């Protein structure tokens, strides 16, 4: 099953797998929406960040850094369906599209 998420500036998205327990979410791509980068400086980057339920909310893991020159990043991240994760961006200046798919937990 295909999965996608649009992270707009200043938003945090809680990803809850209540209908997909026993599966992994494979996050495979992050893309910077170039139509939303007008407020960014030329060499400025934006980080796709993730917190998970057992991690303090003030600290996040950087999944990738994006900018106008490097606006797409392949990812190979499997998230256990038993976790609740929060995805967000490091600044409030641009939109990130995240995509992937669910696969069975083995």
TrEMBL record:
Domain Nucleoplasmin-like: 2-102
Gene3D superfamilies from the UniProt entry: Nucleoplasmin core domain
Family annotation (InterPro entries): NPL
One Pfam family linked to the record: NPL
Protein name: Nucleoplasmin-like domain-containing protein
Organism, as annotated: Daphnia galeata
Lineage: Eukaryota, Metazoa, Ecdysozoa, Arthropoda, Crustacea
């Amino acid at each position: 099953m295909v999965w996608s998420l649009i992270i707009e500036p200043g938003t945090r998205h809680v990803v809850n797998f209540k209908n997909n327990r026993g599966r992994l979410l494979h996050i495979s791509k992050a893309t910077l929406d170039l139509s939303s980068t007008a407020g960014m400086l030329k060499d400025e980057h934006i980080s796709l960040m993730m917190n998970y339920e057992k991690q303090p909310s003030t600290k996040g893991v950087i999944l990738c850094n994006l900018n106008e020159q490097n606006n797409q990043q392949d990812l190979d991240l499997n998230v256990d369906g038993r976790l609740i994760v929060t995805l967000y961006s490091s600044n409030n200046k641009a939109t990130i599209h995240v995509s992937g798919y669910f696969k069975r937990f083995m």
